[in-house]
Specification:
536 residues; seven-stranded mixed sheet
Amino acid sequence: MKPNSTKLSRWFAALPLALVMHGGLHAETVARYGISMADIPLTTGQPDRGAGAYQFTGHTLYDPLIAWEANIGNRPGKLVPGLASEWKVDAKDNKKWVFTLRKGVKFHDGSEFNADAVVWNLDKVLADKSPQFDAKQSAQVRPRIPSIAAYRKVGDYSVEITTKEVDALFPYQLPWFLISSPAQWEKMGKDWNKVAAKPSGTGPFKLDKLVPRERADLVKNTAYWDKARMAKTDRIVLVPIPDAMTRANALLNGQVDIIETPPPDVLPQLKGAGFKLVQNVTPHVWPYHFSTQPGSPWTDIRVRKAANLAIDRSSVVSLMGGLATPAKGQLDPTSPWFGKPEFKIGYDLPAARALMAQAGYGPSKPLKAKVIIAQGGTGQMLSLPMNEFIQQSLAEIGIQVTFEVVELENLYLHWRSGAKADMNAGKGITAINLGYVTADPFYALTRFADSRYVAPNGVNWGGYNNPKVDAALDQIRTTFDTKKQDGLLSFVHQTMVNDALMLWVVHDVNPHALSPKVKEFVQAQHWFQDLTTLRM
C-alpha cells in the first residue's frame, strides 16, 4: 500500500513549524524516522504490528520488569534489570519467581510505580474479568508470556509470579511485558481509546502527538529514572511509509533522517549521495511456517525437505542487494544452539525433484498450496518480491503456491489463531510467511517446537508435535545449568531442521539508511533497537 504522496508532502512541508525552542536555551533536536509500517503501532502499553514495533511505541514509552540490553552493537545483548532491580527463583518451589521492584520511579503522569501497578498490568492482559482488561493489548502479549499461571503482591515493592511448570527460561519472556500507568487509565475515563492519545509509561520518551497513519511525536523524558539511558535526541517523529521506494525518496529529499529496510536498488544512489548504511548481525529469520495439521500438503516430510532444497538462497541475497545471509535452519550456524542437523539445507534441484516424485508428485500432478503473506512491514524484508521468487522456485519442483496477501497486523491475527483455525484452514491456508525473532531460547525455539504451545495456546502455528522434543524442553525448563541448557537446545534445533519444520530462506541484517545529519545510532544485534541512542 503506497501512502498518499500529496498528503505526505503537505505533512513534511509543515513539519519544520513543529521544531520549537526549549525554554529559549537551545533548538530542539529532532530525528524524523520513516518506518516501514502502514500505521503507528498501538501506544497503550503493548504495541501491535509485531516485534519490530517495540522499538517505536514499546521500549520508548514503557519499561518491562526485565529489559534487554539493546544499546550496544558490538556483541549480543543480554537480559538486564528493568523496573525490577533483581529477580530470583524460589529455592523451595522453582515455579515461583520473586521480583524486587525499583523505588522512586514515576510514570509520565507523576503517579508512582509500585507492586500494585505491576499486578494491575498483569490483570490488564491476563484477567479478562478485570475492569482494565484490554483485549487488544492482551492479544499482543499473552502469547509472549505463556508460562504465567498466577501472580501476587508480596510487598509494596515486591511481586511474586508463579509459572505453570518449572521454567528456567521464564525471564526471557518478560522483556515483552510492558508496564503502563493505572492512574492515567483512570484519568482518561477508563477508556483505552483515549489513553492511546495520552499514554503514560515510565520510559525514556513521552508521547507528545499522535495522528494515526501519519505520525507520532516522541519527546525526551527529562525525568527518566535510568540516567545511563537518557535520550540523546529531544524529539523523534515516527512517520509510517510502508512503500520502500517512497521511504527512500523521503530520505533522499531530506523529508526524513533515517529509514528502515531501504530498497536494494537505491543503495548505490544513497551511498553516492553521502547517506550511511548500517546493518548488524541480527537474530531474525525469514521462513515459511508449515501446517502439519491433517489435510495439509506439508504433512509429508519429503515435501517439506524438497521445498527447502528448491531455493537458491544466494539469489535471494542478491535480490536483497546483499542485505541478508542464507539460512541453514532457524538459527545461524554460529549459534550455540545450532547443533548438528543431518538434513543439510541448500540448493539441490535434482534432490528436491526426486523427493517430490517419491511423495507422488510431478509435472502431471503438481502439489497445490496456499500461503498467507504480508504486503510488507518491519521484519518482512522485501515481502512481495521475495515471495514471488519463492513461488517461482517452488514451481520448478511441482509445488504450485498461491498467496493470500494481507496487511501485517491481519497476518499476525492469522498467526496467533493457528493453522487449524477457520480463518486459516477454512480458506485452505497451509503455510504462513512471517519473520521470526530468534535472539533467545524461548523466542528462537521453545515457542515453535513445544506441543503445549500449539496455537491458540501459543504460536506453535502449524501444530508441530514431537515427543522427543517435548521431553528435551521439559529438561530445559527444569535445569538452571546453562551448559546443559545449551546441549538440550542444540538437540531441539537440530531436530527441527531434520524434521524440516519450516522452509528457512534467509536471515535479516536489519538494514537502516541514515542522513548525514544523524551523528550516532547504535544498531543492536537484536530486533529490539534502543532509540535513545539516536543523536542528531
